[in-house]
């Protein structure tokens, strides 16, 4: 029986984190499970009467489940695998009947693929065969002939004069679709996007030359060797049936899955998977397409796994694309990539004249050219039949270490020499360092040898963060524009580092080629006006070009094709200096599962982020290196979690941010750097002072007092706010000094902080003003509050911030601003609450004091501010009751929540549980003030009220106010704040609600609670 997989292997197979979370929820719901050989099966109880039947073939792996999910593997398959990993699936003598039936059918289908039905000798393939093949070839030939006329017309009249609009290219592409040449059509459709830079003439000419060469090669395909003929047909867009590919010789190896990338072109999704043989070093590329969604067959392990299997390669001069054949073992993870000698995937010629200067790495142009006919100069680029190596065997490369830059470039040159139409070729670069400098991006070896990274729609910041200036192994494709990173192996883990979606057509701007300058100039003007010279061309290209004959526009395109092929194959490494690497970070590494979950939460700006960061803060984790770029990107826009994100990124994040123009402002100096206080940026200084305050309150106060006279005005208020943490009478002197500042916002901040200190001299001054400004009338039954406040403020009151309203007041009298009411508000807010208890009695008595309507607003607002500043729960309860008794809309809901939050938790629960489901809107508002997580009695009450709404909805179907969407925000709040142990209770209520839409809403709530529980467990 197959050895059980690990939980990490199973997690890697999950299509998303939600599926894995849901799978864990299904533990304990299995019956009739079993294992036999490579097969697993079981029955999982669902919401229906019949359990779901799940079968897994671990040798694939392949999955079959009777559930309606479109995810592969579904949550049931993942759950069965997890049960197997935990030893809860017993071994049996034979599969269950439903499992045996599917396994037998699968075996039959695999056998049919491996041994397709033999065709009679001489019979044509199912596609493109017989008379239909001749018809298609004639249609393609006619279309390519029209294309060639269009291409030469562009060059004859001059590129500067031609129509290069998207519509013009689309018109020609549509003709190619009619001619059944979809590969050519795709190239034409991507040209408007690729040819947008300053070097657009070179881009267009390279592509025009390639298309001209394809047209000529197709016209003379009977003269080409079979492998090159197959390549030409593939580039044009001829389809090769899978059954035909499976007749090709199988190549068995332990295939390492090194990279995977999905691109989309309108509604067509394409998945490309790069494999490399562990023993042979041979490359393979698997390509799948799916229309409408990225749903691909689950027949390939994820990157980081290897599988002992056979591959069948598509016929080609440089065989690369392949299909799976027979498999001989289940996938297993790998942590190293052997540095083998280069395997010649291509059928490149083996004689010394096969490529120009091949041994020095300057290969790619065949040294066999003949005078071309009027049909074109295809012989200048396409060789006659030669003895070729097509078995994929390994050959050593003289003078180069496998896995280094020189060897990779030589391998690429050999592939170009075999198939000049190739756009890219896989490369493996071991122990290279990604570098960004003023001239662009590179990967650099230890000796300084470097090659550029291709410019694209994004920059490889993830790769740079993963490396941190240290060597990594990079898997990618070498193209005309440089290296396109796909994945990197670091600490034994394969990480996706692709930066953006790339066109499946692969058209790119390429790199500048000075040898083409004269050719480009002639093409811009037009060969009808100017003949191109070849004086700047390399000698081998010039020699071949001189032997070409034909019409000038065609000759120009053929010369450009020669030069482009030569330039692509003759690339050599440059030299780039490596910067200093990032410093080490000795903190505990965030668990990998938790890191993946964090990336998902950040991607959707999840409401669970607050809880995640609170739980992670107790461990002082550092993030995995591959997450650093994401953390910095989110820190730039997510200010509420910025400091948590930067702390998680740590030293690697600081190193990376210093190199990114948009992230440099996020760089935080080390906390032990004394120079931060004197020379740091404002954000760094605030953070430094806050951290010093947490360690040594007196030292932080002394630092602020010592620099106060030299601080800039805008930053003073922000620095004062640092004192709010741990505020005490020891800070009074500093705050009194701040009251003398000329800026109103500084005085106001200092006054607000002093208002939190009821024993301060500031509070005493405010109490004196309150006694002088307010009178209470005759106290026969109850006091009557009246004001005798001044009409003009004195300087002492202004110093204490009484008049600092920033030119705005919320109070109005007879249509004009009521400054006296604003002054009264400020005085009451700064007065100790015990002052009112001395003159008015208890808080409950004070809030019932009779007063004019004009006084009520500033008095209650001042009392509320004082209550929140002095954290007095008795006053909070009294004021909350007074506000709650007012008519709806008369009280500030935010202030009401803050007062509610100051009350004891038992009082909060008691108040909320007195409210029925007609008060759900008010309950939802007040719940924002309840501590996280909500107490179980409160959560149960909310569930009970929502169940009441659900049952009413079942009785009154279609009532707009009873649909679950009306309570969407309450469900979201419940997802974020319910106790995570309440998932089973929520699931039980979902079965009782009697309405399918409400049932779905409760199920989603239960799912979210399970996700939060998993999230917290991952951080343990």
Question: What would you say this structure looks like, in words?
Answer:
The protein has 1020 residues and is of the alpha+beta class. Among the domains are: 7-114, no CATH class; 236-333, OB fold (Dihydrolipoamide Acetyltransferase, E2P), CATH 2.40.50; 592-668, no CATH class; 678-754; 758-892, no CATH class; 904-1020, no CATH class. Helices cover 44% and strands 13% of the residues. The protein contains 39 helices and 22 strands. Strand 15 (482-490) and strand 16 form a beta hairpin. Helix 5 packs across helix 15, helix 6 packs antiparallel against helix 7 (182-194) and helix 24 packs antiparallel against helix 25. The model is unreliable at 116-127 and 346-399 (pLDDT under 50).
């Amino acid at each position: 029986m197959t050895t059980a997989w690990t939980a990490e292997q199973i997690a890697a197979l999950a299509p998303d984190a939600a599926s894995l979370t849901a799978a864990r929820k299904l533990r304990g719901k299995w019956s009739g499970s079993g294992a036999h050989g490579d097969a697993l099966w079981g029955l999982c109880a669902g919401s229906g009467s019949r359990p779901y039947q799940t079968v897994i073939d671990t040798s694939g792996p392949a999955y079959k489940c009777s559930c309606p999910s479109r995810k592969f593997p579904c949550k049931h398959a993942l759950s069965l695998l997890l049960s197997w990993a935990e030893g809860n699936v017993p071994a049996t003598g034979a599969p269950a009947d439903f499992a045996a039936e599917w396994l037998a059918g699968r075996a039959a289908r695999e056998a049919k693929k491996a041994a397709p039905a033999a065709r009679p000798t001489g019979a044509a393939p199912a596609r493109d065969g017989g008379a239909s093949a001749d018809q298609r070839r004639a249609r393609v030939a006619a279309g390519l002939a029209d294309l060639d006329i269009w291409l030469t017309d562009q060059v004859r009249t001059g590129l500067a004069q031609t129509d290069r609009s998207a519509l013009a290219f689309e018109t020609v592409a549509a003709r190619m679709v009619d001619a059944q040449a979809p590969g050519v059509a795709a190239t034409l459709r991507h040209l408007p996007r690729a040819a947008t830079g300053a070097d657009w003439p070179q881009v267009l000419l390279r592509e025009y030359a390639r298309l001209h060469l394809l047209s000529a090669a197709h016209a003379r395909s009977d003269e080409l060797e079979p492998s090159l003929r197959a390549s030409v047909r593939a580039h044009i867009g001829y389809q090769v049936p899978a059954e035909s590919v499976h007749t090709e010789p199988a190549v068995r190896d332990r295939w390492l899955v090194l990279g995977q990338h999905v691109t989309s072109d309108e509604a067509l999704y394409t998945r490309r998977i790069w494999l490399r043989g562990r023993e042979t070093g041979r490359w393979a590329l698997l390509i799948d397409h799916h229309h409408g969604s990225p749903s691909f067959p689950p027949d390939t392990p994820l990157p980081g796994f290897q599988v002992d299997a056979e591959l069948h390669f598509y016929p080609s001069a440089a065989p690369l694309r392949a299909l799976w054949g027979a498999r001989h073992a289940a996938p297993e993870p790998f942590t190293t990539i052997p540095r083998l000698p280069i395997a010649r995937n291509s059928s490149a010629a083996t004689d010394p004249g096969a490529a120009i200067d091949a041994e020095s790495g300057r290969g790619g142009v065949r040294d066999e050219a003949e005078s071309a006919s009027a049909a074109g100069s295809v012989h200048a680029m396409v060789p006659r039949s030669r003895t070729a190596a097509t078995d994929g065997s390994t050959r050593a490369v003289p003078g180069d270490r496998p896995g280094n830059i020189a060897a990779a470039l030589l391998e690429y040159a050999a592939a170009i020499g075999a198939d000049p139409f190739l756009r890219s070729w896989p490369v493996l670069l071991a122990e290279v360092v990604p570098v960004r400098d003023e001239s662009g991006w590179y990967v650099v070896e230890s000796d300084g040898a470097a090659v550029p990274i291709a410019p694209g729609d994004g920059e490889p910041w993830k790769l740079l963060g993963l490396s941190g200036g240290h060597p990594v192994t990079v898997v990618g494709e070498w193209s005309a524009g440089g290296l396109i990173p796909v994945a990197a192996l670091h600490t034994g883990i394969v990480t996706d580092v692709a930066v953006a979606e790339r066109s499946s057509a692969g058209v790119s701007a390429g790199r500048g080629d000075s040898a083409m300058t004269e050719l480009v100039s002639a093409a811009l003007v037009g060969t009808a006006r100017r003949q191109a010279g070849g004086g700047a061309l390399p000698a081998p290209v010039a020699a071949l070009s001189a032997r070409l004959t034909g019409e000038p526009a065609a000759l120009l395109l053929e010369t450009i094709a020669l030069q482009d092929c030569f330039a692509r194959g003759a690339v050599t490494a440059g030299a780039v200096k490596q910067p200093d690497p990032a410093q080490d970070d000795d903190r505990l590494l965030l668990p990998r599962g938790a890191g993946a979950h964090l990336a998902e939460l950040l991607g959707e700006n999840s409401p669970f982020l607050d809880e995640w960061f609170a739980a992670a803060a107790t461990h002082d984790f550092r993030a995995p290196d591959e997450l650093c770029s994401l953390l910095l990107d989110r820190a730039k826009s997510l200010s509420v979690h910025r400091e948590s994100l930067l702390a998680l990124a740590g030293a690697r994040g600081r190193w990376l941010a210093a190199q990114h123009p948009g992230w440099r402002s996020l760089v935080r100096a080390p906390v032990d750097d004394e120079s931060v206080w004197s020379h740091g940026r404002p954000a760094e200084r605030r953070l430094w002072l806050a951290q010093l305050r947490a360690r040594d309150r007196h030292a932080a106060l002394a630092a602020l007092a010592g620099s106060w006279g030299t601080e800039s005005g805008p930053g003073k208020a922000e620095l004062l706010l640092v004192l709010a943490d741990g505020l005490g009478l020891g800070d009074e002197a500093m705050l009194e000094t701040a009251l003398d500042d000329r800026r109103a916002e500084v005085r106001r901040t200092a006054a607000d902080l002093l208002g939190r200190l009821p024993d301060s001299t500031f509070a005493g001054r405010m109490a004196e003003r309150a006694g002088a400004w307010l009178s209470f009338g005759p106290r026969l039954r109850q006091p009557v509050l009246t004001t005798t406040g001044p009409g003009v403020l004195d300087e002492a009151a202004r110093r204490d911030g009484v008049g600092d309203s920033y030119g705005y007041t919320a109070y109005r009298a007879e249509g004009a601003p009521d400054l006296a009411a604003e002054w009264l508000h400020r005085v009451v807010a700064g007065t100790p609450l015990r002052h009112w208890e001395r003159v008015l009695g208890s808080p409950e008595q004070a809030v019932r004091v009779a007063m004019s309507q004009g006084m009520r607003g500033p008095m209650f607002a001042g009392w509320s501010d004082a209550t929140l500043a002095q954290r007095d729960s008795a006053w909070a309860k009294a004021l909350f009751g007074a506000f709650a008794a007012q008519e709806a809309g008369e009280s500030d809901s935010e202030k009401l929540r803050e007062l509610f939050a100051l009350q004891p938790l038992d009082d909060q629960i008691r108040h909320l549980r007195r409210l029925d489901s007609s008060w759900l809107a008010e309950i939802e508002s007040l719940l924002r003030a309840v501590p996280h997580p909500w107490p179980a009695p409160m959560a149960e009450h909310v569930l009970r009220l929502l169940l009441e709404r659900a049952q009413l909805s079942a009785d009154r179907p279609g009532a707009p106010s009873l649909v679950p969407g009306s309570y969407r925000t309450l469900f979201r709040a419940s997802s974020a704040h319910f106790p995570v142990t309440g998932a089973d209770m929520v699931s039980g209520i979902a079965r009782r609600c009697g309405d399918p839409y409400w049932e779905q809403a409760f199920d989603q709530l239960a799912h979210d609670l399970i996700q939060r529980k998993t999230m917290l467990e991952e951080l343990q």
